Structure formats: structure tokens, C-alpha cells
Amino acid sequence: MISLEKATHPLKGDIFVPGDKSISHRSIMFGSIAEGTTEITGFLESADCLSTIECFKKLGIIIDHTIRPTNGVPTITVHGKGLHGLSAPASTLYTGNSGTTTRLMSGILAAQKFDSMITGDSSIERRPMGRIIKPLTQMGADISSTLGNDCAPLKIVGGKKLHGISYRNPIASAQVKSSILLAGLYADGETVVYEPALSRNHSEIMLSAFGADVHNVIARDGSATAILKPGMPLIGQKINVPGDISSAAYFIAAALIVPGSELLIRNIGINQTRSGILAVLKQMGADITLLNTNESGEPRADILVKYSELHGNQNNVFEIGGKHIPTMIDEIPVVAVLAATANCDTIIKDAAELKVKESDRIATVVENLAAMGCDIEATDDGMIIHGGKPLHGADIKAHDDHRLAMSFAIAALAAKGTTRILDDNCVGISYPTFFKDLQSLL
Ligand code: S3P
Questions:
Q1: CA distance between the termini of the chain
Q2: pTM, whole model, 2 decimals?
Q3: What pLDDT was estimated at residue 34?
Q4: Domain boundaries, the chain
């Protein structure tokens, strides 16, 4: 448990946050099935990404953690064995709390000669896996939910010949898209994944850098297609992982919420499929400036944020929905916290996916903001927040959801009295040093 009080002075400083979680996972996975070594700097050493490392070690990949003698930079080296170099695991692959590990690795395992079993913690065993079982089965894979409930544990029978498919995913999901594309690397023809809006495209960017023939096509209406042609070997690369915008989001929110604050958050990934929070907050009046932008590979920049009073449009309502949602899906809990302090009503819609994250984030955000005195209601696909009522401290139940624990630590900075985050350890899933980094600014 951790206790936090209302911030008494502005937050000022120049900070770094740990590496991007999505990119870190992919660097291990793609490095493992590439030929030669992949050297990763800026890797996120959090529980989720360590789960990916452990799984690929069990699949016979040597992964070293060293400090570069020349500059002292921690480096992860993955000794890839090529597309067909993985070996049968001796026991069930355990993915912990990580949906990305579970879904992406399933795409790779569906194409192997050997059988495998995958499971994770109690949250993973509740999350929907039918969304990958269906397309992978269409490709010719033998993958099933052992309990018959479309959840993990998943059993994958090896030795199947995979075919390229054209798949229309009804939701924009990078985990589903990436799982299909990874299986597509082994298929006998082209794989096409259509989605209603472009979900984060880190897989496409990194697979292409490794030598795969893959690209995105975006239609005028914003719908997107990822197209992968198999046949190219993957070649190990040097990867520098930018800071995670999902982790930076907590400090962006902290600066916006505490009067007089000004924070410079360095080297953050600003890929457009991830940076919806910046666009949305700017529309709400946030003073956010990008500095030192570097567009090569995964784009990155320093983010300068100054305290701002957030507001709605002319009717004093702000609506967040549609194509913005996939680009800020993991940031919605902290945006809801900001909306609670804004002098407007905020409607978050088209976000039913929140229900199948590490917790049901519609229910858990509404429960905890209401406990702090916010006037908020849950809807089928989001929530309506009547902002501006003063928040007070409360006991926060994060439901072992890292993004909840961190979002409510930020809410605490604007709340009168003491806020206690009851299950604070879960921040280790994506940001182990979060509370230390936050305390250093208070
Ligand atoms: C992720 C994709 C998103 C996101 C998750 C990480 C990824 O999930 O919420 O935290 O790394 O591909 P969905 O694909 O389920 O939207």
C-alpha cells in the first residue's frame, strides 16, 4: 500500500521514463526468430517484458543482459536462431500478466513443428483469446482454449502448414493484427489484416526493419490494412527503444493537474498510432510542446508540458471517441482522471475494449473516481465524467491493474486529504520505478 497527499508545490524538472513496453516485447520476439544477434538498448525491464524473455529462453533462445563497457549502457542481446530455430519448451510457457506476450507468441508458436501450452496469471486467464484463435485457425493452425472458454490456457499443436488469409478484424487491435502477421511469416501466401482504424504499428515498423516485406495501407475513411508477404528471412538488428508514451502520460497528467508545474519528459515515442493523448489534451487546452523531434524509425521527441486549465468546447462538453480511441486506449484511465478535474463534461465513447484490459477499466475507473467524489457514470462503451467537483482522498482498489494504480496516484495529487493505493505493487508490470520517480518530483 502507498499513501499520497495533495501536491503542495509545482512539479518542475527534466525527466526520463522507461522504455516502451510494446516495442520492448517485439524486440525480444523478433530478435529470437531473426538470424544473428539483436542488440537492444532502452529495453523496459518490467515484469511483462521479463515474461517475454523467460518464454523465449524456454524456447531455446539465449538472451544476455550486459552493460556496454564503452558507455555503461545496459544492453540486451538476443541470439536469434532464425524463423525455424525455436525448440520445444519443456513445460508450459507462462506469460504472467502480459496480453502482448500471450497473443503475439501464439502467432509464432502456431507455425512451429512442436506442440506448446501457454498460460498466464488470473487476469490473463480471463482475457479473450477467441480473437486470435479464430484467425489463426483460419490460417490452418491448431490452437484451442483447454477449458473451452476462449481464454488461456491455450494448447497449440505443432506441425501444421499455414496459409495466408485476408482477415477483417472488427476491432482495431495491434495484438490480434501482430499475432496474425507473425503467423503470416510462415504462411504459403500473402496475409492481409484489415482493421477499422490503424492500431499501433510497431510490428510493421520493426518487422520491416528486420527485412520482412510488410506495409500498411490507410484508406480515406481511416480504416487500415496490413499486408505481409512471406519468404524474406529476418536479420538481427540494433534497436534503441524510445521512452513509453503510456508511462509519460502519468507525468503529462501530473504537470497539467498541479498548478504552476512544468515538466520536460525526454525521448518519448510519439508514433501517431500511440500519441492520441497529446492531440486530445491539446484540444482540451493543454499546453504541450514537442521538442527535438526525430522522425526516423520509431519517431520520438521531448515533451514539454505546462500546467493548464482543461476545458470542453462551446457547450462545455468534450467528446473523445472514434479514431482517437485506438491511439490512446491505455491512457484513458489517466485521461479520465484529468477530465474529473476539468471544468466540463467529458464523454468517452467507442471504448468498449476497456472492459477486456488487465481489469474492466470502465468499471474500475468509475468505481475509484466515484470514491474520490467525482460525478461519473459508466456507459456501455465508455463513461461520462461531470468534471469540476473537488476530489477527496480515498482508498483506491487498483484490481492489480498497473494503469489504474498509476492513474490514481496522479488523481491523489489533486485530491484533498490522503489517497491510499491499496495494491501498488502492480506498477511493476510496466513501470517498476514509478513511485520513486513520482516522489522525486514532489
Ligand atoms: C498492445 C496493444 C494494445 C494495448 C496493449 C499493448 C501491443 O492492446 O492495449 O497494452 O503491444 O500490441 P490491443 O491490441 O488488445 O488493443
A1: 18
A2: 0.98
A3: 98
A4: 2-19+243-439, 21-226
